[in-house]
Amino acid sequence: MGIYRYPVIRPRRLRRTQGIRDLVSQSRLSIEALVQPVFVDEGISGDRVAIESMPDQYRYSVEGVVKFVGELLEAGIKSILVFGVPSEKDPMAKRAYNNEGPVQRALRNIRREYGDEVLIATDVCVCSYTDHGHCGIIVKKGSGYVVDNDESIKILSRIAVSHAEAGADIVAPSAMMDGQVGAIREALDSEGFSDIAIMSYSAKYASSLYGPFRLAASSKPQFGDRRGYQMDPRNSWEALKEVEMDIAEGADIVMVKPGLWYLDIVRLIKDNFPEIPLAVYSVSGEYLMIKAAAMSGYISENQAILEALTAIKRAGADIIITYYAYKIPELLGR
Ligand code: PBG
Ligand code: ZN
Question: CATH topology for 30-331?
C-alpha cells in the first residue's frame, strides 16, 4: 500500500504548534461573513427585555436596538438580520407593512445613527404579525383552513417594499410560499428598488429547532403546523429544486436552514450551485442546544461555538447567521 512506508510519514508535524495549525487550516471563520439576528419589539419600554427561551439573547425596543447595533459594530460584526414583533396582530398582517411598524421604525433609527456602516437584512414573513401565527394568509376551505399562497405573496411583496423604503439592504423572505422570490423581485423593481438584494430562505425545513425562536418572535402557529409549506426533513433533492427555482426567480443569495442537522444539504447545494452565495442559518434550537449543554458543565461553550460554526463553514457556507455572532470576534481574539 503506497503511503504506508518506513520511515513513517508524520502528519503530526503540521499539528505541532498553534502557529502551524493556523497556517494549514482549511476552513476559516471570518467575522465579515457573520450575521447577527436582532429582534425588535415595538411593545417594549426601555432598551431591552431578556428572551426566556434563549439565555443571553434579548428583544430590543425600536430605540434600544440602536445601542446594540453600535456594540456589534464596535466588535466588528457589521451585518444584522432584523425580525419585528408587533403590538397588534390581525388575520392579514397589516402591521408588517406599516410605515410605523417595528422593523420600519428600527431601520430608520439605525440608519440615522450608522449610515452604511451597518448592513441590514430584514426577515420578510407574516407569522409574527398574524393572529393565527402562520407564515401566510389563511382562508376557509371546506371544514378547515388553508394557506392561500398567491394572496400571501402579494402581502410579502408589500412588506419587502416597505422594508426597502425604511432602509433595508437585503430582504430575506422566509415564508416558503411558492413564487415569493419572483413576486418580491418584481415589486421591488417596479417601486424603484432594483438595487435591493434578496436573500431567500430557499431550503427551509419544518424543524423542531425553531421552538425557542417562536417564543422570541411571538410567531407560534395557533393551530396546525408549518409542514404544509416548509420542507420535509426526509428530502434532500427537493432542496436543489427550491434553490434552482429561487435563483431563476431572482434570488441573489440562497439559504439553508437549520444548519447543524442539515450540513449534507449545505454541501449538496454548494457543490451544485457554487456560483451563488450560500447562507446558513444556525437557528434558535441550535443556539439553545449549545447553551443548555454548556450549562450542564460538561461541554465548553466557547469551544462548542467555534466547532459548530467551523463545521458549517467546512460544509460550504459562505455566510453564517448565528445568535452567537456578537461573541465570535472575542472568541477569535480580535
Ligand atoms: C419565520 C421564521 C422562523 C425562523 C426564521 N424565520 C421560524 C418558523 O418558521 O417558525 C426560525 C429562526 C430560528 O429558529 O432561529 N418565518
Ligand atoms: Zn413565518
Answer: TIM Barrel (3.20.20)
